[in-house]
Amino acid sequence: MTGLELLRATASRIGTTPGIGRLLGMEIDAIEPGRFEASVVTRPDFANPLGDVHGGVCATLLDSVMGCAVHTTLGPGEGYSTLEIKVNYTRTVPVAGVRLTGVGTTVHVGGRTATAQGEVRDDEGRLVAHATTTCLIHR
Hints:
alpha+beta, Thiol Ester Dehydrase, Chain A, 6-stranded antiparallel beta sheet
């Protein structure tokens, strides 16, 4: 299967989000060529020592949606690895049931590397974090 077909097949199996997605309670919201959207609902388990959502939750959501956006562009048997990720945080998020939606889009997909960008917004549409990534493509 292509990357797009694989992700769509995964999304069609309700309640079977793999690995880190299951751990965070991630829901896949949209899958298109070069674009991937997923969300999580904050909970007390996500707290940092100050009682807000730990930045790693947004970083993980961003890494997931940007990487999956790249994955949607890959052919059968091809994969990717994150080479680097740069995250900027714009506001704190409470741990009490806020839906965070991450959207990743590809910027460039080449022969050996791909770049993508992503945003996380809260349930009021406010920007929480944004990021860029470079991925190594395994052909």
